[in-house]
Amino acid sequence: MADYTKMWEELGLDLEAHAKLLEALPPTYYDVYLKQENRPQNMEYFDFVVSEIHGLRVQELQEFRSSGGKVVGTFCVFVPEELILAAGGVYVGLCAGLEAGTAKAEAVLPRNICPLIKSFMGFKLSRICPYFESCDLLVGETTCDGKKKAFEVLGDFAPVYTMETPQKKGPGDWALWLEEIRALAARLEELTGQKITADGLAEAIRKVNAKRRALRRLAELRKADPPPISGRDALLIYQIAFYDDVERFTAQVNALCDELEERVRQGVGVVPPGTPRLVVTGTPMAIPNWKVPYIIETSGAVIVAEELCTGSRYYEMLTAENGAALGDLMSNVALRHLEPDCACFTPNSRRLEKLVTMVHEYRAAGVVSYVLAFCDPYAVETYQVEKSLKRANVPLLKIETDYGQQDAGQLRTRIQAFLELLANNGRVAAAGSKS
Ligand code: SF4
Ligand code: SF4
Q1: Which residues are CB-contacts of 387 (< 8 A; sequence separation ≥ 6)?
Q2: What is the Å distance from ligand 2's center to 371 Cα?
Q3: Kind of pairing, strands 90-93 and 277-282?
Q4: 207 burial class (0-12, 13-18, 19+ CB within 10 angstroms)?
Q5: Where are the beta strands (DSSP E) in 255-372?
Q6: What residue's CA is closest to ligand 2, atom 3?
Q7: pLDDT digits (tens, 9 = 90+) for 323-349
Q8: How far is C-alpha 108 from the chain's CA centre?
Q9: Distance between CA 264 and CA 304 in Å, rounded?
Q10: Helix spans in 362-407 (H)
């Protein structure tokens, strides 16, 4: 990576703390990603993006800002990227998947709060994230109580706008949500000084849909046995989707899919045929949270799909492209962004149905429920997940963890025992561990 010290200094980063953060990444990345055998060649682009994670993309954002552009940070898939693009802004996802700045975060938050919230607060207060420091506005939401209150705290340190997200999907909720979408559009126009027009919004919808279509194509290819790409690599791509340039990213995912199609045609996989296939469901895995996928895939299994916001909830639904009037397009955006089956909704039965369908479509032998510690919505909903999978006769492993590595050994033991159980039940061949 080139020397970006001047840029980081100008952004006000704590250079010493930031250097420590960057030092931690390469060895982890080597173990989790580069050591994998038989990776698709087109993963090179995504490796490059990670190698430049705080460099090139941040520099692009600074160039955009110096020409008058505005960068908007978000924390949830409910916040429509289309609106930000249509207002002339750039969208970056700020959810963080690393234990950092904990002491500073705990000075303003309770200790027992979900690691995702603690992490983004720690990143901001410790001034170690150039993306946070590049944002002209942060858009929060009221999806869970922890986030809702944390955004009030964050408002003391950065400009924050909070959307009210409904908790049900009835007609009254829809009316509220449409109003929230319109209010966000007005706030974005105020920020960028650019009116959202019907043409601009239609174009933004097409661009973001193209990104989702590319990710759907990738997901489809993972149905093959052997899968042409690992779950870890797929997760990395979903994570990068939140901050890379939309059109460049879409082109790169499609180039990768061309290669994967060829692999599937030739029967080339990233693991041997018959490797136990798992679906992961639960809380999002923000970059660089790769702990559980790494343990699963170095214990003899492969992840073939993710019912996560860093997974199917991000790309499965497209925004409708019909309608020429701005009001119609705005409704399309609102409709699409009330779709993700987040555990903040009640009831959330469609998530359970989709999960069972996913298990069948991806020919998975079992499901891993991944819940971040202190995440009440997902932790409580695990009861429903378990009940529904039991009814469908699908084995489930429940994991609750955080961003630390202290439980890595214990998690490996539990995952290996789960794979043995699948083998004993005749669902898969006996699993052997590999690195
Ligand atoms: S899990 Fe819920 S709150 Fe979190 S990003 Fe997804 S939709 Fe948003
Ligand atoms: S992981 Fe759970 S507790 Fe944490 S921000 Fe998301 S919904 Fe809220």
Answers
A1: none
A2: 9
A3: unpaired
A4: middle
A5: 277-282, 302-307, 366-372
A6: 375
A7: 999 999 999 999 999 999 999 999 999
A8: 25
A9: 14
A10: 376-391
